[in-house]
Specification:
Length: about 290
């Protein structure tokens, strides 16, 4: 009972999360320390947008703290790892943790033969000098008698496109599942992904692919990107890309001015220079430019 002139002390404590909302406990006591009211409330929070990064943000050991502390995150990593070991003969967790400069896939036994067949079945389309489209094997050096294949990269395999992309997508999905398991994720939240991050966003928020299919698609994508152009022993190609922000040149320098500069450089020169992507169009635009030299 609350009596006239009682002094009431209201205490509100954040106790949990549910669908991105705060769950708070409310307790009211009088000056004698007697509890006169107790309850809970769910408090809506400002809308949250989930954005997923693209390739280039990888680093050794990324996501492993969460792997060790979060059952939800660990389940994502282990699901992907189980499939990759069975289908392709390597562990993405091992690559993230150790970043080895080489990894040999062995094709012995029944399981090894099945792995070898998967590598042999991978192809990509290319165009020859006459404009004809040809389908070529991604692993021309692997045949029915090949006993093993070794992946190498001078900076470590985590920086080879085909492994970096898997690692980033799985890390993003693991982090998102950890948030979801703790009640932080709002239903129908907006989401976005930059480049590779589109796969992370669609798989994590929209949940359109199981982990096994996700890593299949991303591994194939990375391999195609890695092998689509010739590379030297340091894994370098004759192509480079940069992001350009026209607004940083000057207030009057716009997309048309950038196009004029790009065309002027490429015209009459033995090189390829093209605008390949318009990344953002808000107050400022960032443009990706690719060149061959």
């Amino acid at each position: 009972m609350v009596l006239p002139e009682d002094e009431l002390d209201v205490r509100i404590k954040h106790t949990a999360m549910h669908d991105g909302n705060f769950i708070v406990g409310v307790t009211t006591v009088n000056q004698r320390g007697e509890k006169v009211l107790e309850g809970t409330a769910e408090v809506a929070q400002p809308p949250t947008t989930y954005a997923f990064t693209g390739q280039g943000s990888q680093e050794q050991g990324m996501g492993m703290d969460l792997y060790n502390s979060s059952p939800a995150a660990r389940a994502v990593w282990e699901s992907a790892d189980t499939h990759l070991i069975s289908a392709y003969g390597f562990s993405i967790v091992e690559i993230v943790r150790e970043n080895p400069k080489k990894k040999t896939i062995h094709f012995g036994g029944i399981k090894g033969q099945a792995i070898r067949e998967r590598y042999m079945e991978m192809t990509y389309d290319t165009t020859d000098k006459d404009g004809n489209i040809k389908s070529l094997p991604l692993f021309a050096d692997i045949n029915v008698r090949t006993l093993q294949h070794t992946f190498t990269h001078p900076k470590g395999l985590l920086f080879a496109t085909q492994f970096a992309q898997i690692a980033l997508v799985i890390m993003s999905r693991a982090a998102f599942e950890d948030l979801r398991s703790k009640g932080f994720v709002q239903p129908d939240a907006a989401f976005a992904g930059h480049s590779l991050g589109e796969f992370s966003a669609l798989a994590s928020v929209a949940d359109i692919l199981p982990n096994s299919s996700l890593v299949d698609v991303v591994f194939y994508r990375g391999l195609t990107m890695q092998r689509a152009v010739e590379r030297d022993e340091q894994s370098r190609s004759n192509y480079a890309m940069c992001a350009v922000n026209p607004s940083r040149v000057g207030k009057t320098f716009d997309d048309a001015a950038l196009r004029e500069v790009v065309d002027s450089i490429s015209t009459g020169r033995d090189c390829l220079l093209e605008i390949v992507n318009y990344n953002v169009e808000v107050r400022h635009r960032f443009v990706s430019v690719i060149c061959s030299y």
